[in-house]
């Protein structure tokens, strides 16, 4: 027995989609800024430093001094020499007053007075160390600063928006189709 056959041909539907993107445009002008600031006021007060150098002792060590200082020095040295001489003579007088106690006092005094002691040899620095006196008072600086706040004025601009909406279009390019054919044997 022969059975008829069915033959089917189908065609799918085809859809076309056209799309337009949405656009958003944003524009904004730069802000306008006006700024003003006065410079700071600066005041500087200075008391200058002071250096004092006292060379009186150094000049005295080198025998370079005023006549008044020289007179004072020589009078002091003379007074001291007179006092030492008076003390020596008083001492020698007491020794002579006690001659009865024995000893050769006159010969001892003659020996002391004829041979003075040897002078010591030493190195001295002229002027002597630290004879120059220094005194320094450092400078004083006072700084006063007065600042001024800035004045700022700003004008902002609002943004401007432009929107173009998007779109989607669909269309049928090809319809669906189904063909059925019967084939007889």
From TrEMBL:
One Pfam family for this entry, by name?
A: DUF6470
What's the domain of life for this entry?
Bacteria
Q: Which InterPro entries match?
A: DUF6470 (IPR045527)
Q: What is this protein called?
A: DUF6470 family protein
What is the native source organism of this protein? Oceanobacillus luteolus
